[in-house]
Amino acid sequence: MADPTDPQELVLQTIGLRKHFGGVLAVNGVDLSVAPGDVRAIIGPNGAGKTTLFNLLTGDLTHDSGRIYFAGEEVSGLPPHQLCRRGMGRTFQITSIFRRLSALENVQTAFLSHHRRHYNILTPARRLYRDDAFALLERVGLQEQARKPSGILPHGDQRRLELAIALASGPRLLLLDEPTAGMAPRERHEIMALVARITSDTGLTVVFTEHDMDVVFAVARRITVLHQGSVLTEGSPAAVRANPDVRRVYLGQLTSC
Amino acid sequence: MTASARALGLLAVVLALAPLALPPFFLQLLTEIAIVGLFATAFNLLMGFGGMVSFGHAAYFALGAYAAALLVKRAGVPMLLALPAAPLAAAAGALLFGFFIVRLTHTYFAMLSLAFAQIVFTVIFKWKSLTGGDDGLLDVWPPAMLKSPAAYYYFTLATVALSLFVLHSVSESPFGYALRSVRENPRRARFIGINVRRLQLLAFVISGAFSGLAGGLFAFYNGSVFPDFAYFTKSFEPLVVALLGGAQSFFGPLAGAFGFKILEWLVSRQWPVYWPLFLGTIVVLVIVALPQGFVGLAGGQGWRTRLIRKS
Predict the structure, then answer these.
(1) Model ipTM?
(2) Nearest partner of A240 among A255, A228, A224, A227, judged by Cα
(3) Domain extent listing, chain A
(4) Scanning A7, A160, B173, B219, which has its CA 20 to 30 A from the CA of B165?
(5) Phi, psi of A93 (to 5 degrees)
(6) Any idea of the CA torsion for B41, B43, B48, B51, to the nearest 10 degrees?
(7) Interchain contact, B178 vs A118, CB within 8 Å
(8) Nearest-CA distance from B42 to chain A in Å?
(9) How many CB atoms neighbour CB A4 within 10 A?
(10) What is the Cα–Cα distance from A149 to A101, expressed in whole angstroms?
(11) What are the φ/ψ torsions at residue A12 (nearest 5 degrees)?
């Protein structure tokens, strides 16, 4: 890992990021630094601001104040398609694919866009990047499902497909918003093992949110804990696990349930 | 050769030989079917492939028709030079209006497209010195060599066939794939790097251009142009035709145009007043029993429909 204190080396950095909805401060001055090759989990109790932070990072929401840097350049206020072009890939909390297209067409379209061919109106697209798309589908274990309409695939396969779509854009940072949401425990570990395999193969940096603590502690290299819109603590899984504040926050939530 | 290629070849031969067997009236009916088919196919590039339902496509049909007719009537330009102005004028209109329309979605998209079309209608209706207002522009005929029903039929057939070939290429191009992805999921499409509005605007302009060409062809077929080319009832024609034929298939609108015009002729001949009643009944029946439209009768693509009905 590169020196995490040098901002030029960071993949992602936020400074004093703030967002409120009406009177609620959803994200309240978050400073985040993610170094290349990191696999960073962002955790926190419900309402801690994880999803809002995520949507600020991906340009789906605009923040009230603060700055966002991606790969050393300020990207505050850039729309999603430009962030994607700069190398940010993402998956959504609710699976987001092109349901009436085949799995193959889903990934092919992502490749076509990545290679800036999507304003080409006259050449046939059917064979373009088909081999790349097959190879990527094979990597996520969907080669048998390539020709099927993606909307009828089982939930776990749709999650894998979404990962393949994100990877087709050649990202250097992958943002996964609750990648195991709605999955059975066995599937959860399969998909996170897949993420881990891809990141160790490619050195891709990953930032993810997750509710399942087993998954978090099995995969994350560093963990940021959010509480009431602010960073409570950040550190290695072992350090976070031992942190009394974290225990208090989670226990507090448990007793209130 | 695939089955669909064989079917297209057969269709081409039949249409090419039609003037030998059919009286002029039927050639005119076929000419009209080809024009409506082009209009509905251009419209369906937006609805079927882009998920954008326009309630104002008559605007681009009328812009094309009036651009061609005005050049012939007011500037004395020959028809073969005036016709290419039809798609150009319509594309310019689609670029201007589309810039605002693609900023909206669903109902608001439909309503703004309708509003712009009503503006076009009002301008044509009121600007009497240029457009002739309610009286329209008369004697907009093609040159002598294209004036016979058979000659204009061949001319229209060739122009429409070429246009459909271009539109089909567009729908199967990388742009066509990207457009489908935007239809399916704009949020995801943004996060594969697509500038959704710009892509939608390009689709709008292409769709408008070919709607305008259909308008230009119709002007010379009809020999005159009238303000109601831009009226909202005209905007619903490609919508109904595409739904009847099958909006999920590229050739659906063409099949729809054929069914629509043949039924209109059969019914209007007997009971002219009751055509709207028949049309309404048929539309309801098709939507309920045959959601893939007429092309659904030919089978295939079952899963696409299941997904549509589910979502």
Answers:
(1) 0.91
(2) A224
(3) 37-51+79-220+236-256
(4) B219
(5) -60, -45
(6) 170
(7) yes
(8) 14
(9) 14
(10) 5
(11) -140, 135
The span from the CA of B52 to the CA of B239, in Å, is: 11
Instruction: Pull the structure tokens for residue A56.
Output: 């600020």
- Please enumerate in sequence order all residues whose Cβ is within 8 A of that of A212, keeping only pairs 6 or more positions apart, or say none: A180, A188
Inter-chain CB proximity A124 and B191 less than 8 Å: no
Name the band, by pLDDT with cuts 50, 70 and 90, for residue A23.
confident
Question: How many whole angstroms separate alpha carbon B3 and alpha carbon A196?
Answer: 47
pLDDT tens digits for range A36-63: 999 999 999 888 899 999 999 999 999 9
Q: Please give the single-letter amino acid code of residue B188.
A: R
Strand duo A73-74 + A65-70: pairing:
antiparallel
CB atoms closer than 10 angstroms to residue A33: 21
Q: Do B206 and A99 touch (CB under 8 A)?
A: no
Helix (H, G, I), strand (E, B) or coil at A124: coil
CB-CB: which of A84, A108, A128 is closest to B193?
A84
A209 three-state secondary structure: strand
Which pTM value belongs to this model? 0.93
Q: Nearest chain A Cα to B206, which residue?
A: A121
pLDDT digits (tens, 9 = 90+) for B225-281: 999 999 999 999 999 999 999 999 999 999 999 999 999 999 999 988 999 999 999
Please name the fold of domain A37-51+79-220+236-256. Rossmann fold (3.40.50)
User: Residues A96-110: pLDDT tens digits?
Assistant: 999 999 999 999 999
Q: Which residues of B touch A61 (CB under 8 A)?
A: none
Which range has the worst mean pLDDT, A200-209, B97-106, B212-221? A200-209
> What does the angle CA A154 – CA A158 – CA A144 come to, to the nearest 5 degrees?
75
- Hey, of A81, A107, A145, which one would you mutate to test binding to chain B, going by the most B CBs within 10 A of its CB? A81
Do B188 and A100 make contact, defined as CB atoms within 8 angstroms?
no
Query: Lowest-confidence range among B13-17, B50-54, B90-94, B194-198?
Result: B13-17
Report the DSSP pairing between strands A39-43 and A222-227: parallel
Q: Which of B173, B180, B187 sits opposite A123 (nearest CB)?
A: B173
Contact call for A110 and B303, based on CB within 8 A: no
Dump pLDDT digits (tens) for B148-181. Answer: 999 999 999 999 999 999 999 999 999 999 999 9
Q: Do A121 and B173 touch (CB under 8 A)?
A: yes
User: In this complex, do B307 and A169 lie within 8 Å of one another by their Cβ atoms?
Assistant: no
List chain B domain ranges. Answer: 22-231
Partners of A95 on chain B (C-beta within 8 Å) are: none
